[in-house]
Design goal:
The protein has 554 residues and is of the alpha/beta class. It has a single domain (6-550), classed as FAD/NAD(P)-binding domain (3-Layer(bba) Sandwich). The chain contains 10 helices and 21 strands. The chain has helices spanning 13-24, 128-132, 142-156, 181-189, 237-243, 291-301, 380-387, 392-402, 446-465, 531-550, and strands spanning 6-9, 29-32, 65-67, 83-84, 88-89, 97-101, 198-199, 247-250, 254-260, 266-272, 278-282, 286-288, 326-333, 348-349, 366-370, 406-413, 422-430, 436-441, 471-476, 480-483, 513-515. The strands form 6 sheets. It has a 6-stranded antiparallel sheet with strand order 5-4-19-13-16-15. The chain is globular and about 70 Å long. The two termini are 18 Å apart. The relative contact order is 0.21. Bound molecules: flavin-adenine dinucleotide and iron/sulfur cluster.
């Protein structure tokens, strides 16, 4: 198959945005994704078994990955173990455990089950090395990303409110959602602690916009939005890219290798379709956007005569610098009826400790939000298995008294590079095509544990200040790797000795290869959700490809 200017691998946050940017700039694009296409009726909200399905799920929508053994846990940190009052410790034994890289394969990628938080990075979070002596700096200033943030917010339909601490050059396209009752209570009852809460910017429509209806506040965003008002990229960039007439989208097309020629250029790629047939696509330009775990895997799998050790891996950096999700959540029952089984996940946010120097004693910030719906505490099965103990009549009575009263406060913090945290190829796990799976290594240093410690203490303080009872469940990154936000495995930078791609996502040596997903982040930010930044970067990369095509470099 030939005839496309650019082939984009992966139709998630980065790939879909890049494909739209390229197609709307006049280039022809083939967008391939390993996973299936989803429609609103594929999501479980209308089905009797809806609670059993935690995420959009169809054949082919989950990849596989392995974990290397992780570090020993210290009894000194037992207060950071993950537990539930009915089922006990979530991680048995005395070692940290790899649980999951949370993702969806499909047209829309992991945005199919995201909460649609749409955050910009704090400018200071982009200069971690020069200002704070850790991690790496971004190779360009915040101001260069700003116009692309505006485009990404407009295309996704972000509802938000101005915040003097987070500069922006134009208002959000949509007015913010009104906070729910529990969030108003949280705001009021944590004021004496000095906490300030703001409407959380969300790519969830607060009114009809761009041909999509407003939200109905059903709290099922993680299971897939049946109304298509949540701005997952399958309902935003993908249809807009197709509408240009220059973007062809193929689902069930898993790219298994890139072939580099002797001239430092990718000549072709191969993919397998859902029937198991192998196809070769010759190409002038490739954008890899398979996510921060699968992108390094694909580059490493593509080792060949002209790419020893993997494509773009001249310095052995592909897969290094993995940044994971450092998180903590405390869940408790409130005596009042809060109605937390409905509404929006994370309708407000606290940025008080988001700056890189805001947490005493450690470098790297964090943020807090109510996360009851994201913790899937929205239905009777979750209450009966996680919240309310026992059987029979007393159980039924407790269920009636408790339903809708659960409150979960969650925190996500900065993740800094660690030599023990990276992705390589698993020696002992292969996918259905017989290719090695990605293997995730993760190690938390003292500063990371210190950040989790701070987040846990604050979550507990806030839950108590709300007037809730003792926690019934807590979990965090101290004893498990269960990451929703992953970054950094093909870092961007100006120096080819310390980065894989340049400031425009272009491989330093392989001139027709670009990377356009969370892999390129030099730093994670202090808990900001990444998708908006991934999209803004992807639009910037699309611009660079268009310019390179105009100069006949690709
Ligand atoms: C439960 C949950 C909640 C979240 N909430 C938020 C939130 O509120 N806000 C936010 O900003 N972020 C959120 N995230 C994170 C966000 O979804 C991801 O950070 C983002 O989607 C990553 O974008 P990406 O382009 O790097 O990868 P992805 O969106 O994961 O896209 C990668 C795509 O590549 C495809 N692919 C992989 N390998 C191949 C291959 N070999 N060939 C072809 N295709 C391939 C996959 O099928 C996938 O579609 C959440 C994530 C989870 C799991
Ligand atoms: S709460 Fe709104 S955005 Fe989330 S699934 Fe329901 S309708 Fe969609």
């Amino acid at each position: 198959m030939t005839g496309h200017d650019v082939v984009v691998v992966g139709a998630g946050a980065g790939g879909a945005a890049c494909a739209w940017g390229l197609a709307s700039a006049g280039l022809s694009v083939l967008l391939l994704d390993a996973g299936p296409e989803f429609s609103p009726t594929d999501y479980p909200s209308h089905r009797p078994d809806w609670e059993r399905i935690e995420s959009p799920d169809k054949p082919g929508s989950r990849g596989i990955h392995a974990f290397a053994p992780m570090q020993k846990l210290s009894p000194a940190h037992d207060h950071l173990r993950s537990w539930n009052h009915i089922s006990g410790l979530m991680v048995e034994g005395d070692a940290r455990r790899g649980v999951a890289y949370q993702h969806v394969r499909g047209i829309g990628g992991s945005t199919l089950h995201f909460d649609a938080e749409s955050h910009r990075l704090l400018p200071a979070a982009m200069t971690m090395r020069s200002q704070f002596g850790v991690g790496a700096d971004w190779p360009f200033p915040y101001a260069e990303l700003e116009p692309y943030y505006i485009t990404a917010e407009t295309l996704s339909g972000v509802a938000g409110a101005a915040d003097p601490a987070r500069p922006r050059s134009a208002p959000y396209p949509l007015e913010p959602h009104a906070p729910g009752y529990a969030s108003r209570l949280l705001t009021e009852r944590t004021r004496h602690l000095g906490r300030t809460w703001r409407p959380n910017p969300l790519a969830i429509l607060s009114r009809a916009y761009d041909g999509r209806p407003g939200c109905n506040y059903c709290a099922q965003c993680n299971r897939g939005c049946p109304r298509r008002d949540k701005g997952s990229v399958d309902v935003t960039y993908v249809p807009k890219a197709i509408a240009t007439g220059r973007c062809r989208v193929l689902s069930g097309a898993e790219v298994t290798g890139l072939s580099a020629g002797p001239d430092n250029r990718i000549r072709a790629l191969t993919y397998r379709d859902s029937a198991g047939q192998t196809h070769e696509v010759k190409t002038r330009c490739v954008v890899v956007a398979a996510g921060a775990i699968e992108t390094p895997r694909l580059l490493l799998l593509s080792a060949g005569p002209h790419a020893a050790g993997g494509v773009a891996n001249e310095q052995g950096l592909v897969g290094r610098n993995l940044l994971e999700t450092l998180h903590w959540t405390t869940c408790a029952l409130h005596p009042e009826s809060l109605g937390t089984h409905r509404g929006l996940p994370s309708d407000i946010i606290c940025w008080d400790f988001n700056a890189p120097d805001a947490i005493p004693g450690v470098v790297g910030g964090c943020r807090f939000a109510p996360v009851t719906a994201s913790m899937l505490l929205t239905g009777p099965v979750s209450y009966a298995t996680r919240v309310v103990e026992g059987w029979g009549r007393s159980h039924r009575e407790k269920m009636q008294a408790s339903f809708g009263n659960a409150i979960a406060i969650g925190a996500i913090g900065e993740s800094l590079p660690d030599p023990g945290t990276y992705v390589d190829l698993a020696p002992d796990l292969t996918d259905p095509h017989g290719l090695p799976a990605a293997r995730i290594h993760s190690h938390l240093d003292d500063m990371a544990i210190g950040r989790i410690e701070f987040m846990a203490a604050e979550c507990r303080r806030m839950v108590a200040a709300m007037g809730a009872g003792a926690p019934f469940e807590e979990f965090g990154a101290y004893d498990m790797f269960s990451s929703t936000h992953v970054f950094g495995t093909a870092r961007m930078g100006t120096d080819p000795a310390t980065s894989v791609v340049n400031a425009h996502g272009r491989a330093h040596h392989c001139k027709n290869l670009f990377i356009s997903d969370a892999s390129v982040f030099p730093s994670s930010g202090g808990g900001e959700a990444p998708s908006l930044t991934i999209q803004a970067l992807a639009l910037r990369t699309a611009r660079a490809i268009r310019d390179a095509a105009a100069r006949r470099e690709i």
